[in-house]
Amino acid sequence: MTVFLTIVVLALIGISLWQMTKILKLSQAKDADNSQVANDKDNNLQGKLMLAFVIFIYLLTIYCFVQYNSFFLPESASEHGVEYDRLMLISMVLIMFVQIITQGLLHYFSYKYRGNKNNKALFFADNDKLEFIWTIIPVIVLAGLIIYGLFTWTDIMNIDEEEGDPLIIELYAYQFDWRARYAGEDNELGKANVRFIEGVNTLGIDASDTYGMDDKITNELHLPVNRKVIFKMRSQDVLHSAYMPFFRAQMNVVPGMITEFSYTPTMTSEEMKNSEFMVEKVATINKIRKEKSKKLVAAGEEGLETYEFEYYLLCNKICGTSHYNMQMKIVVESEEDYEAWLKTQQTFKEQLSAQASN
Amino acid sequence: MSAIAHVDGHEEDHDHGHHHKEIFITKYIFSQDHKMISKQYLITGLIMGIIGIAMSILFRMQLAWPDHKFTIFEVLLGKFGEDGVMDPGMYLALVTIHGTIMVFFVLTAGLSGTFSNLLIPLQIGARDMASGFLNMISYWLFFLSSVIMVLSLFAEAGPASAGWTIYPPLSALPQAIGGSGTGMTLWLVSMAIFIASSLLGSLNYVVTVINLRTKGMSMTRMPLTIWAFFVTAIIGIVSFPVLLSAALLLIMDRGFGTSFYLSDIYIAGEVLHNQGGSPVLFEHLFWFLGHPEVYIVLLPALGITSEIIATNARKPIFGYRAMVASILAIAFLSTIVWGHHMFISGMNPFLGSVFTFTTLLIAIPSAVKAFNYITTLWKGNLQLNPAMLFSIGLVSTFITGGLTGIILGDSTLDINVHDTYFVVAHFHLVMGISALYGLFAGVYHWFPKMYGKMMNKNLGYVHFWVTAIGAYGVFFPMHFIGMAGLPRRYYTNSNFPYFDDLADTNVLITVFALITAAGQLVFLYNFISSIFYGKKAVQNPWKSNTMEWTTPVEHMHGNWPGDIPHVYRWPYDYSKTNENGEYVIAGQDYVSQITPLQDGEEEMHH
Known about the structure:
The complex is a heterodimer of chains A (358) and B (606). By secondary structure, chain A is an alpha+beta fold.
């Protein structure tokens, strides 16, 4: 790889040097015009290159949308995510439309009106009507986007614990891992503060608060499908951000305060794994991993494991040296599977007594 | 030429030019002449730019080939690149310092410092800045802050590495990351000095523009460059002090045990005493500067391109009043949109709604500007000089980058793309690349004014095309890896197999980045060799209307020999014709600002 890279870099430097000397030679050859100000010949060439450039932009756009189509996240696995995706699609279509038109005009004009000694520019200093039109159009379009966006935003951020029967889970972040704390039978989290951290009580739960006794601390996040979850987030040290891309969910985790986010998962892990998108995606990834493993094995190292998709939560706010590997697995499953899994987890009380008996 | 004919014919100006002998130190080092100070800003800015870009190359290599060993890492990073493997902390440090250097040292000081200093006195008809002494102090404080920032790279535990936004508690606690020790202290000291420098400079620009305009140079006759520099200076004065407060409180939290930003922290096995502070407060203070800062970087670039596009299109800039109004609107709105960086910071969601509203409003004046640029090109007679190409390039990247702002500025959509590579792609295009293009355009255009020499145009063309293709090659695909949910500031993505199929794109981006960076060597070569061996410039090479081109090619203290010329018209009388279709001045498609109205000519109502 280094060899390849070195060759590429050297080749590029070589090419640029070659081009440079060529250009220098060209520029010296015709000493008739040495003013270093663009002449008609330059205008002609550069104007045409401008036209070529906008074609390059269009092709790059098409290439990216076709080639990187599989990069887009799959359909949302949460209820509000459907709204999110729709708003994203509308905005995306809109900005691509404006992008294609304006880039086209900009570069086409640069080509069409490239300078020539015999041409005369049009003295055209202003036109109120024209300016009014292109002020009012963005106003209307943006007003639409703002209103749509704000309604969706209010829906997502309006977290009501009274409504329905939401599951309360604490997400606890520290350098460099996550913990989840389930509120237990009473669905009420016990009080907590970093000042209570001691021994097995790694989350600083207040042992004098009875609400905390049935809390369950886990290092995987299991969620029952189709039930609203309210996350209450707490950080032990620095800023983190709980990012759950498949659920269109993200909220910073801030030391000294409790932040909240809420969503209703609608697709179980199994459903997502078996979706057409994910099957294809995982196949591609495993193909890449297999290739890579071959090289690794050939170099006497261990090969990569085959990848199986699981939802994940990752840290998305710079938090220190191992920021890049601060993740937690998320499992969305049926209510029964969830209950069964939860039963296997120790309560805080059990943890405390286990510590005491040691 | 007609321009000169109307300079008042008084013999000598007895106030300026020849009563103090210049020695080397006062001429080249502790100079109080705005033209020399502008060159000092430019060269310091370029050197910082080289460092900043080199850093980006290093971390791009790490991202593209995470499991590869590069000797260059060991050579350049020492113990942080042992055996050619980059230390994860060093990766964060590189990202942090790259951001800091590019935003503040290159695009604020290097761009605004250079061209405000050069052009404000020259384009408004002043002998120099209002205070040459403060101007000199401003530069030397900038120089000092640059030196300290570079020195911080050699801190034992590494330079500041909490991201250029230095959010506490990460930036406050050396236990949290090594770079938050001495490295961070030096970062803060450097930035405090930088802010002082920036304030002195800005105050000077504002006073100069208000007080020292020559006779006839009303506000509505000022070139758009001056409008942009003027308004930039004002938002600098409004917002930079807030960053200083933010930094001061952080210094106290770090050194004196206060709790402005810290609360309930358990780190390295112990509970800190801090109680009651909030990192969100820091975020508010930081972005109160941080967002206007985007426009502090961008507005001068837009001013420069307005001027260059009009000159090279041989047409008046379209909608002068709308352009001025847009600058003012952008400046005003820029100070009330900072919360869009914090939609998911934990602040009240209602605030998010307000900031979404103001943020999307700012798209309106930006759109007006873009449309006006395009209309200025329409039916022009475009002289495609390198400066013009960079100006058109700026409009292009400004549109591409600006449009994705509509997604990020929408609080709802921000949820899932926040802090991903989508953001990185967005702001690099809209403020990084655009402002850099503004810088390059300005250098190519005003090089004859700065050094009395011409830059080589063909090398300029090569530079432009390599940069233009490279910049899109780097940042366009980056939107897509961002849409995949790839977080920024990750040392490697290999811990998430889900991102494995993005690896090729990361390699592609890095290859484009390497090519683009190599392309900048062409510029450096052109710049340096033209200073010494460039073709001697004529007085007004681009046939421009503004006043700086009425000064002699050789620099002189006081700018104009004799009296300062008066101004009789706005700066955009390009290709202006009389009713009979002839140019106002026969055979010449431009009319300098210092040319009085001709017989039968009407001053345009603009």
